[in-house]
Recover the amino acids of this structure.
């Protein structure tokens, strides 16, 4: 079966967002352009890792080009996007593997999110080889979202993604575990709920 690639080059909008209440949120990446929208689901840790790696890669591009790349040091205020996800939120697939690259010729960040696939392997080495073959197979394989962003768009995406991740439940000041609205059993207080005598 031919691989389905959802290509946005460039997107009108590319954001991370959530649906649900803190503690029970589902995380999504959503790309929009020319009247079409693609939404993929992923884990909170994947969103955080993606945002952090985008910032690190952009910083490295600036460092290697001596500041000559069209990459701002911080996200431009005019690209700030606080709007919710486009509705209806219809998940195309759940993300398994993500990849980042910088296209030096076109000065673009390439973000790829590939559908989760279960691979069978006997050793870690076999698993790594199977994953690499899957990533390199352009004709066959699981669905993939591929987005090409300018430097400013990538910085704005990373900033919003980190804000979305950090907008969840506040951490307990004692143990740093998330505080639930219905209470928190804190291990640092020997199992007592915060506020109990």
């Amino acid at each position: 079966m031919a691989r389905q690639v959802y290509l946005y080059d460039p997107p009108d909008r590319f954001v991370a967002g959530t649906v649900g209440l803190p503690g029970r949120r589902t995380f999504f990446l959503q790309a929009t352009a020319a009247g079409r929208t693609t939404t993929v689901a992923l884990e909170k840790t994947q969103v955080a890792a993606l945002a952090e790696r985008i910032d690190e890669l952009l910083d490295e591009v600036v460092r290697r080009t001596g500041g000559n790349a069209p990459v701002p040091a911080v996200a431009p205020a005019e690209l700030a996007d606080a709007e919710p996800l486009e509705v209806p939120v219809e998940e195309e697939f759940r993300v398994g593997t993500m990849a980042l690259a910088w296209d030096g010729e076109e000065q673009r960040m390439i973000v790829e999110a590939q559908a989760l696939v279960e691979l069978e392997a006997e050793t870690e080495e076999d698993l790594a080889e199977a994953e690499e073959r899957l990533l390199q197979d352009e004709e066959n394989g699981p669905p993939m979202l591929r987005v090409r962003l300018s430097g400013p768009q990538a910085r704005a995406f990373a900033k919003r993604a980190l804000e979305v991740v950090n907008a969840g439940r506040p951490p307990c000041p004692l143990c740093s575990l998330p505080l639930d609205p219905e209470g928190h059993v804190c291990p640092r207080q020997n199992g007592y709920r915060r506020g109990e005598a």
